[in-house]
Specification:
Blueprint: H1 5-11, H2 20-23, H3 42-54, E1 65-67, E2 73-75, H4 81-87, H5 103-112, H6 132-139, H7 143-155, H8 163-173, H9 188-199, H10 201-205, H11 235-248, H12 251-260, H13 266-272, H14 274-278
Antiparallel strand pairs: 1-2
Keywords: Signal
């Protein structure tokens, strides 16, 4: 199946403007209804419940509105900054500082990459405020809670009906389920070293730059995904997500997100754990 038009735009570079589709690129294929009955806490359950009832608001995220976890439609960063900060106050504090976001930031990412100075660029999350619940906890060092919240919202369909299966397959394809180097106490600085060792500095620091190799852009090899309802099928599809996570500061949080959720759930284990052996992550 050919990817949607916006996914094709991602494949040419400049992913930051379309971050919704970096996670839920096939959003809208179907509506997910399955809530996790074993939710980790009341706060997560509340977010999950709100997302289920209001998930259709997320389709506006490509325009001037974003869907918050409680379902409310709010201004995006390219509109009124004051209104944006009222809707997403956590993103208008360090390390995000979205109150200072300008179109020049976007242009710089397109020209040079999101993290050209070799440090995670949390300001990139200004273009994807629908992930505030996760990234605010991740940046604060609450990796386990960040993963639990993201899983609850993904399972509830907040980011599109296919995101949970995409993320679940990603976890097994990229070996996150057996990654013991990352712990719940791993810092962003330690994650930078891991990203350097895995990809080399330029590959992840220049993520999002127009003119990058096709294999480093979201959307690469999506035409090999026969049925998006069954997640990703090759690491060619998931590599760009890892580069994005390194550039945006959530690589270590992604690993914990996977280990604490998808890697423990029978549905995802049965469906995707074969990748661990197929790809040599385990013997």
């Amino acid at each position: 199946m050919a990817p949607p038009r916006r996914a094709m735009a991602l494949a040419t570079g400049g992913c930051a403007a379309f971050l919704l589709f970096c996670r839920g690129v096939h959003a809208g294929w179907y509506d997910a209804e399955h809530l996790d009955p074993d939710g980790p806490n009341d706060h997560v359950a509340l977010l999950q419940h709100g997302a289920q009832h209001h998930r259709r608001g997320a389709v506006y995220a490509g325009g001037r509105l974003q869907a918050r976890a409680d379902g409310a439609l709010t201004p995006d960063i390219h509109g009124n900054t004051e209104l944006f900060c009222a809707a997403w106050p956590e993103l208008c504090k360090p390390p995000f500082n979205c109150q200072n976001f300008t179109d020049e930031d976007q242009m710089s990412w397109d020209l040079y990459g999101m993290a050209v100075d070799g440090k995670p660029n949390y300001k990139t999350w200004c273009t994807a405020p629908q992930y505030t619940e996760m990234i605010s906890r991740c940046a604060a060092g609450n990796l386990v809670e960040a993963g639990q919240v993201q899983f609850a919202l993904s399972e509830a369909g907040m980011f599109g009906g296919l995101t949970a299966d995409n993320d679940g397959s990603y976890c097994f394809l990229e070996g996150h389920c057996v990654n013991t180097a990352v712990t719940e106490n791993t810092t962003a600085e330690e994650a930078v070293q891991m990203c350097d060792e895995r990809f080399g500095r330029d590959a992840w620091a220049q993520f999002g730059k127009k003119g990058n190799p096709p294999e480093d852009n979201i959307g690469y090899a999506f035409d090999e995904q026969a049925d998006p309802r069954n997640g990703f099928t090759t690491r060619k599809q998931t590599r760009p997500y890892l580069l994005a996570a390194c550039a945006m500061g959530n690589f270590h949080c992604d690993v914990v997100y996977c280990r604490e959720t998808y890697c423990k759930k029978e549905y995802y284990i049965k469906k995707y754990s074969h990748f661990l052996k197929d790809l040599g992550w385990v013997k």
